[in-house]
Amino acid sequence: MNSESQPTVGMLGLGIMGSAMSVNLRAAGFQVLGFDVSAERMEAFGSAGGTPCASPRAVAAGADLIVSVLPSVKALDDVVVGADGILAADRSGQILIEASTLPLEDKQRVRDIAAPRLTLLDCPLSGTGAQAVTKDLLVYASGERAAIERCKAVFEGFARAHHDLGEFGNGSKMKFIANLLVAVHNVAAAEAFVLGMKAGLDPELIYRVVGDGAGGSRMFSVRGPQMVADRYEPATMKVEIWQKDMKIIAEFAAGLNCPTPLLSASASVYTAAMAQGRGAQDTAAVCAVLADMARLDRGTSETEVPRPQGERKP
């Protein structure tokens, strides 16, 4: 479809995820207006073909549908109800696809404040920044069904698939479950690599052979290449941001009196990564943390990062 037949999409938050999603939306024929508090990200967005705007209010004034991928509750408050937020544009009938991982009660609070002028959908994403680049994301959509239906073309512009999970909040609940598994599987993959290397096996051989069998997982496939190469920058999900997600999941589970022993066990490894100054590195850096604990000297790695299993060469 060409840009004349597509709605104009606003993107609020142009970090690792938002910038990649914007590129894919433009490739799908959408005009994309964007805003981020970082001048550097705004410049990169404009250089890549997006239309930078001075504020969320300006984005809302020109966009038919809006997507937000934000780092904090404060950022969500600012872009929706702030002095220069979406509501300040004074338009009715707009939809906000809220794709951040944030506490559910805060999304519900902002939804209630914004209604009825703005329909807020709870639509967290499953996937890393690297997966966002290749459009390998899932959308966990929840909220008003008619609004979700209106957003399908936008979902298809930046994601591999989307699921309508029903009432508002079910998207976040599903995301918390998915992220719990990501947290555990990522540390489990790192632990397996370190054990294998400590036993004298080549990490690339571990990646190829274990990933081909019952011991493989999506996280083993996606983050394994960084663990093989012992290189964790640039990050597709920073450890310091992941800490926020871990806290949200733990508090959600505690509110339900639901034990999460494996999540708790994995949390200490991510905390150790922070203590080692790895906050800006990819969460795959838990492999380096465990290697250090195992007194495994990997030397200076110049290994090329292998492609995730199943990914074709360009």
List keywords for this structure.
9 strands; about 325 residues; globular; N-(1-d-carboxylethyl)-l-norvaline Dehydrogenase, domain 2; 2 domains; Rossmann fold; alpha/beta
In short:
By secondary structure, this protein is of the alpha/beta class. Helix content is 49%, strand content 11%. It folds into 2 domains: 3-168, 3-Layer(aba) Sandwich (Rossmann fold); 173-293, N-(1-d-carboxylethyl)-l-norvaline Dehydrogenase, domain 2 (Orthogonal Bundle).
What does the model show?
This protein is α/β, with parallel strands linked by helices. The chain has 2 domains: 3-168, Rossmann fold, CATH 3.40.50; 173-293, N-(1-d-carboxylethyl)-l-norvaline Dehydrogenase, domain 2 (Orthogonal Bundle). Helices cover 49% and strands 11% of the residues. A 6-stranded parallel beta sheet has the order 3-2-1-4-5-6, with helices on both faces. It has a 3-stranded mixed beta sheet with strand order 7-8-9. The chain is globular, with a radius of gyration of 20 Å. The mean pLDDT is 94.
- What low-confidence regions span 5 or more consecutive residues with pLDDT below 50? none
What is the CATH C level class of the largest domain, in words?
A: Alpha Beta
Strand order of the largest sheet: 3-2-1-4-5-6
CATH topology of the largest domain: Rossmann fold
What general outline do the C-alpha atoms trace?
globular
Total strand segments: 9
Helical content band: 40-55%
Span between N and C termini?
A: 24 Å
How many strands, which pairing sense, and closed or not: the largest β-sheet?
A: 6 strands, parallel
Overall mean pLDDT: 94
What would you call the structural class? alpha/beta
Instruction: Kindly report the name of the CATH homologous superfamily of the largest domain.
Output: NAD(P)-binding Rossmann-like Domain
The helix-strand sequence is EHEHEHEHEHEEHEHHEHHHHHH
